[in-house]
Amino acid sequence: MNATSRKPGLLFSGPDWDFGTLSQAFDVIERVAIEELNLDIHPVQMEIISSEQMLDAYSSIGMPLMYRHWSFGKHFLYQEQLYRKGGRGLAYEIVINSNPCIVYLMEENTMALQALVTAHAALGHNHFFKNNYLFKEWTDAGTILSYLDFAKNYIARCEERHGLAAVEAILDPAHALMEQGVFRYRRPPKLSSEKQRQGLRERLEYEERSYNDLWRTLPPSKSGSQVEGSESKTAERRKSLNLPEENLLYFLEKNSLILEPWQREILRIVRVIAQYFYPQRQTQVMNEGCATFVHYTVMNALFDRGLINEGAMLEILRNHCNVTFQPAFDDPRYTGINPYALGLDLMQDIRRISTEPTEEDRDWFPDIAGKCDWRATLLNAWANHRDESFIRQYLSPTLIRKWRLFLLSDTASEPHYEVASIHNERGYEKIRSALAHSYDIGASRSDIQVVDVDLLGDRHLRLEHKVADGVLLEDGSCGATLRHIRRLWGYKVSLVGVDADTGAKIYERLSD
């Protein structure tokens, strides 16, 4: 595209753009963002893509390099049909948590929109990815792209050597178990370097050449079954296997007796990708709130400095309002709390409390109220919190009243809901605690762990589901999940549901 002629001092004028205009706009936006907010970012690599390429990125979970799988094609067709029929629009950008930070911009965007999403993704998301403790400790931005390249090539070689059906038979259950394929309570190992992956490829090739399948046909050991009931032997066995184990894919990768070396490596690839996205599920409100706060602050600063005109600012504000729109609970468009809207309001409220506090704010936030250092407060929050802890610490009574939040009590034995707390003095703490708890991944995801298996006996894999608040697993999906686990384990699998508080057994399911 060719940029139209612009007035002196303006970054752009009109909707058209070219790469020179984009580059100049990025330099100015980056400088303003650092001056206004003291951001710290990875180097940025911006890519211009078409709508079809954006749909393709949707289907492959937004990654620039991805192996092939039928589910990605299915997602592509579904998203394409919605887009072509006007049922859903496309994202204006996609940003990759990598170093350099890769930002995809739609070629159909106007220049005003390109400036907006550059500030949002290339500055806001980029800063959050680089500085938030979850991303620093649980992902490796410097090696993820090279690892994805390794994964794509490795699975392609497996397809050539073993056939598409054989690879698909491993990928299907692995994808189905991705939710249970992450480390939640202990830090995962760092991704290996390219030199280490080369050594891994050589080792896997050697193992595949020397692999002998005959040992799997041996009957279970009698001595192993005889000691099945011994508590001391069971405790010793569980200790040797590091049980209980929360990461189901990791356990299957390391201990399944039926998987060949190349199949184990595919399980590892899937769980590494699942782990990569785990911090994003814990920080959606903060991540989107940070990016939205950054683009809103920077765009207003550009307008105040005379670098964009009124027409561009109106377009920017229109798109900003579309992103942060929060439908009412009785609106047909309501699907829950908009993380963009809640995140932005929380961060703007921190700025208000820091600069123009009320007496209520001084009582609730004595450490930041009236200190005027909102930049340092935000930078600290972006670095050291996830959604649950951020809301628990910074949701103010003012914001609770603005959102008209209240707390419902849902008791199974009662025929009606009960309004337990409203936005008043007695309800603020309970509402804030309940809202924060709803963003706790540990509370909203099923806690299923491997608790026992006798590898020398009947090889029966025993899983345990800790039932919280009486919420049971859905029968259909539970049965399908157990079948996927049995496909990768090869022997009987059982799942026992126990009460999280008392330990009492509630139910038991066996694999088909």
From TrEMBL:
InterPro entries in the cross-refs: Spore_V_R (IPR007390), SpoVR-like_C (IPR057008), SpoVR_N (IPR056174), Ycgb-like (IPR057270)
Region annotated Disordered, chain positions: 215-238
Bias kind Polar residues: ranges: 220-229
All residue ranges annotated as the SpoVR protein-like N-terminal domain in the record: 16-442
Protein name, UniProt field: SpoVR
Source lineage: Bacteria, Pseudomonadati, Pseudomonadota, Alphaproteobacteria, Hyphomicrobiales
Domain of life: Bacteria
Domain SpoVR-like C-terminal: 447-499
Pfam families (alphabetical): SpoVR (PF04293), SpoVR_C (PF24755)
